[in-house]
Every structure is written in C-alpha cells, then in structure tokens.
Amino acid sequence: MMQTRYMSNTDATVSLLGFGAMRLPTDSEGNIDYPKAQAMVQLAYENGVNYYDTAYMYHGGKSEGFYGDTLTKYPRDSYYLATKFPVGWCEKEEDIDRIFNEQLTRCKTEYFDFYLLHALDKDKFETVKKFKIYERLLQYKAEGKIRRIGFSFHDTPDVIDAITDTYKFDFAQIQFNYLDWVQQDAERSYKILESKNIPIIVMEPVRGGYLHRLPEKIASVFRAVNPDASNASWALRWVADHPQVKVILSGMSTLEQVQDNLNVLSQARPLSDEENKAVETVRDMIRSQKNVPCTACEYCMSECPNGIKIPDIFRAYNDYTQSLNVGKFRRTYKEIPEENQADKCISCGACVAKCPQHIEIFTELAEIDKLLHTI
Ligand code: SF4
Ligand code: SF4
C-alpha cells in the first residue's frame, strides 16, 4: 500500500505519491480522454493516493473540471484537492474572487485542501503584494474555503527565502530531483524550507521524464548496480529519501505510469551508499552533456505568434545530444509541422518571460536550426 507522510504543522496525512493533472491523456482533438484519465485516477485512488493536484490553466482550463467530474465520486474527506491561483493572470483585486469562485465551481467543491499561489518568482511575488492576494486567501481560509495556503515556485533560493520571510505558508511546492539539486541549487531551497519547518511538495521529480529517458551509456551506471530498476525509480527514490518532502507529484499520462509510480513509492527503501554514489555519477555524466533544461511544461507556447513547437524541438534536440543519432533526430524533427519549426522563430522573445527554467528560447532555437543544417 502507498506510503504516507504526516504534515505536523497542518495535521494532514498525505500519500507520498501525488496525482498531477497537467499531462492527462488526450484524444485526437486535444481534449482530455475521460475514460483513460478516469481509469488512472481510479487506480491511484484504490491504491492509497489521496493527494490530487491541478491548476487553473492546466489543459487549457479543463483539468480542474476533470477533477470536478471525477473525484466527486469519492467521499470528499477521503482525498486532498490542491489547485493554484494564476498570479500571472491577476490584473486587479476583483480578479481574485472571480477566479477563485470559478475554480470552486469547476472542481464542484466547497473548499480546497491545499491552495497555492502558482509559479511564484520575483515578479509574481510583487503582483501578490500589489493586489494583496495572500491577504484575500487568508480570508478564504477563515471562511473555510481553503484549508492550507502554499505556493509553487520557480526562482532562486534567495527569492524563496524572501517569500517565506514575508508571509506564513503551510507548505511549498518546488522542482526537486537529483539533477536540480545541483543544477538549480534546489539543495539550498530545500534547506531554507526545512529550517522554517515548511513541508515540501515536489514537482518534476523525474524532470518531465528527462531522468527516465537517459541515454544508454548513462543508464548503464544504474543497471550495473540494479539491473531491474527503471531510471525513473532511481529518481523517485532519491527524492523520497528527503524527510521534508511529503508528497511527490507525478504528472502521469498512462495507466502504466500510474502503476510504475505506485510500485516504486509503495515500497521505496532508502538508497544505499553504493546507490547514492551511482546517482552522483549519473548526475555528473548528465551535467557534462549539452542539453536544454526544458521540462515540457508548455507555459511558453501560449505566447508564441508562430506556434513554434518549442518543447517538441527541445525534446528532439536533447534526445540527439544524448544518443548522437542523427537519423533519429532528423526523423523526429520532421514530425513537427514545417510552419512550427525552429526556423520560423522571429526572435520576438515573448516566450522567454513565461519559461520557469529561464531558458533563452530563441537563442537555443537558432542554434538547433543551425545544427540541423550542419550535421
Ligand atoms: S522568440 Fe520565437 S519561439 Fe519565442 S515567442 Fe517569439 S517567435 Fe515564438
Ligand atoms: S521552454 Fe521553458 S516554458 Fe517552454 S516548455 Fe520548456 S521549460 Fe516550459
């Protein structure tokens, strides 16, 4: 059965695996495939997953409604529902009530167990202060419409320190995995939150699948230690070894992924010294390669006037830098419609501000386009 962890500060016993609803299966028209997605929720729920995460804009605004249509089958006190306020979409104080009430309606609920300020960074933190968003959430909490207030986060450790010094939060959601421990100094963010006794919800434990799709020469380090464990299971176990982490969110897309995550996190034992060494070796090998640290979150896509398939291009490129398989790179790249390929980027820069990973997207696209003409 699924492991649980206790958040002593807010008296919540949460499942170690959390269900993220940002990459649900979709049909040919891009709509959420209800039968498939509901079967995934059912499998997770029946195996002890009690934390369900969504956000106002996931799946073009349809993800919250999916939970509203799905979780209401189960007793309301048998699961925790988490959603997020789209700080970036708040232009005046009145937007707060409008959006919040819409979220309650979509989710068919009277309250949220966990409510987050979405994707805070330095700029969005200014928006929170300007429109007194936190203060409004405190009022919702007093009215029983929110049980716990937190934030998800995409910036440097100094900013997380400032945010948590300014307001009292019940939990925080950060990007946390063995690569970002070093690559994005997640170690410092973790230690800041630990020192303030703020429980951590983890997002991107497998970095949008990147730590699962390791190239053969790197994955062989893991297999030499344990031939049967998947690359993803190493990443999940590493995250689970950190006691301040209470929930590990996985944005699952298939029933098989749900089952794999259930298998790993139901029986995850701590990594041994030998296994921790293997993780360090793998991290060093990944960091020595050239790649674009894209998590395929798609936040940039809404801004692009030319519909450039940014995450698809970066995924094809990252696969290439790991496999050095030119033929496969070309084939994958050709699957992207011509009008949405890298050479159609006009370097307007509109996408960059949306990227939580601070990738200079147009520069990377130009380099990839150049590479395609030279290999
Ligand atoms: S810089 Fe390129 S990819 Fe980014 S929004 Fe502009 S055209 Fe699209
Ligand atoms: S480029 Fe940035 S915003 Fe776009 S999908 Fe990748 S990580 Fe997300």
What does this protein structure show overall?
The protein is α/β, with parallel strands linked by helices. 43% of the residues lie in helices and 14% in strands. Helix 6 links the parallel strand 7 and strand 8. Helix 1 packs parallel to helix 11 and helix 9 runs antiparallel to helix 12. It binds iron/sulfur cluster (2 copies). The site of one iron/sulfur cluster has 16 residues, from helix 15.
List keywords for this structure.
375 residues, alpha/beta, TIM Barrel, 8-stranded parallel barrel, two-stranded antiparallel sheet, 15 helices, 10 strands, binds iron/sulfur cluster
Give the arrangement of secondary structure elements.
Elements: E1 4-7, E2 12-15, E3 17-20, H1 34-46, E4 51-53, H2 63-70, E5 80-85, H3 94-107, E6 112-120, H4 122-130, H5 133-142, E7 146-153, H6 157-166, E8 171-175, H7 180-183, H8 186-195, E9 200-203, H9 216-225, H10 231-240, E10 245-251, H11 255-266, H12 273-287, H13 310-323, H14 326-334, H15 361-374
Parallel strand pairs: 3-4, 3-10, 4-5, 5-6, 6-7, 7-8, 8-9, 9-10
Antiparallel strand pairs: 1-2
Helix pairs in contact: 1-11, 2-3, 6-8, 9-12, 10-11, 13-14, 13-15
One iron/sulfur cluster binds next to helix 15.
